[in-house]
């Protein structure tokens, strides 16, 4: 069921499509958790055939240490996927994705600027490039992404619209621990104290969101949320911004569908989260 080469994957997909079956893909970098599994569940419910891809994409990492430290847990991932009976786990060999001579970069402007884009140069080019490849390799007509990476979801939507890619993008809600912490592969790197304090980020987003919905002014509300995140044990707030939900334009007033998005550092780990107003 694990497929490592594009050729055999394409053969499978062609046979499924000839039989009139729909194909969904869940792109991941492995180290699967319940957030990923909720995407697989959604794909399983809507598609005849489901492909989960696992590829730790070097092009979207900013630092060699981050890439080297990224957990690689293929055997565990396959075991977690077993109950979902996915039709293929595509774990491409690196040369399948970036063969010698690879010379293309997919770069989405606008929605990729600011927020994570400002702090992780090249990150969204790496994401857009690999996602384009994964769509091309899998031929899926539906693709599932978590809202936890909300800016990534917007980048992928823009990419698909701009390049007329024949794939429907499905955004799925963030899955949280009981205390509110958004699930992330990075949570495993939090020590006990940092893990206990980490929900302060979501709490601050919730409080700020409630205040904004009740009509509080944006700038002081965001300043109070930043202070609450730092008081809650975070070392640094990289950004905390109110953006339009569609297109991510910065907002000075919460006067249309909006998201609060934040990135902050705790215990040497960078966490992101966002909330719809
Ligand atoms: O969200 C992720 O895990 C990655 O950015 C993705 C979409 C699989 C591309 O490498």
From TrEMBL:
Query: What Enzyme Commission number does this protein have?
Result: 6.3.2.1
What is the protein name stated in its UniProt record? Pantothenate synthetase
Its subunit composition reads: Homodimer.
Positions bound to (R)-pantoate = 60, 152
Gene Ontology molecular function terms on file? ATP binding; pantoate-beta-alanine ligase activity
- Tell me the gene name: panC
Provenance organism: Phaeovulum vinaykumarii
Catalytic-site annotation from UniProt:
36 (proton donor)
Q: Which GO terms describe its biological process?
A: pantothenate biosynthetic process
The positions annotated for binding ATP are 29-36, 146-149, 175, 183-186
Q: Which chemical reaction does it catalyze? A: (R)-pantoate + beta-alanine + ATP = (R)-pantothenate + AMP + diphosphate + H(+)
Nucleotide-binding: is it a keyword of this entry? yes
Family indicated by similarity: Belongs to the pantothenate synthetase family.
Organismal lineage: Bacteria, Pseudomonadati, Pseudomonadota, Alphaproteobacteria, Rhodobacterales
Question: Which InterPro entries does the record associate with it?
Answer: Cyt_trans-like, Pantoate_ligase, Pantoate_ligase_C, Rossmann-like_a/b/a_fold
């Amino acid at each position: 069921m694990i497929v490592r080469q594009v050729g055999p994957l394409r053969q499978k997909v062609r046979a499924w499509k000839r039989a009139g079956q729909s194909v969904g893909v869940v792109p991941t970098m492995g180290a699967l958790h319940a957030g990923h599994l909720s995407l697989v569940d959604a794909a399983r419910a809507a598609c005849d055939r489901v492909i989960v891809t696992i590829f730790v994409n070097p092009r979207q990492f900013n630092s060699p240490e981050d890439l080297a430290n990224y957990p690689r847990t293929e055997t565990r991932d396959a075991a977690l996927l077993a109950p979902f009976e996915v039709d293929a786990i595509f774990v491409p060999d690196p040369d399948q994705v970036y063969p010698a001579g690879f010379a293309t970069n997919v770069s989405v402007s606008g929605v990729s600027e600011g927020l994570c884009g400002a702090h992780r140069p090249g990150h969204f080019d790496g994401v857009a490039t690999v996602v384009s490849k994964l769509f091309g390799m899998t031929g899926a007509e539906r693709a599932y992404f978590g809202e936890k990476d909300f800016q990534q979801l917007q980048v992928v939507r823009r990419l698909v619209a701009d390049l007329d890619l024949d794939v429907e993008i499905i955004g799925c809600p963030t899955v949280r621990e009981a205390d509110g912490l958004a699930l992330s592969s990075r949570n495993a790197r939090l020590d006990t104290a940092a893990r206990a304090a980490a929900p302060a980020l979501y709490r601050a987003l919730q409080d700020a969101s409630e205040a904004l919905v009740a009509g509080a002014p944006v700038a002081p509300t965001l300043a109070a949320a930043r202070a609450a995140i730092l008081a809650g044990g975070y070392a640094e707030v990289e950004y905390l911004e109110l953006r339009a939900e569609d297109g991510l334009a910065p907002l000075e007033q919460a006067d249309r569908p909006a998201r609060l998005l934040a990135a902050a550092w705790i215990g040497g780990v960078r966490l992101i989260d966002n909330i719809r107003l």
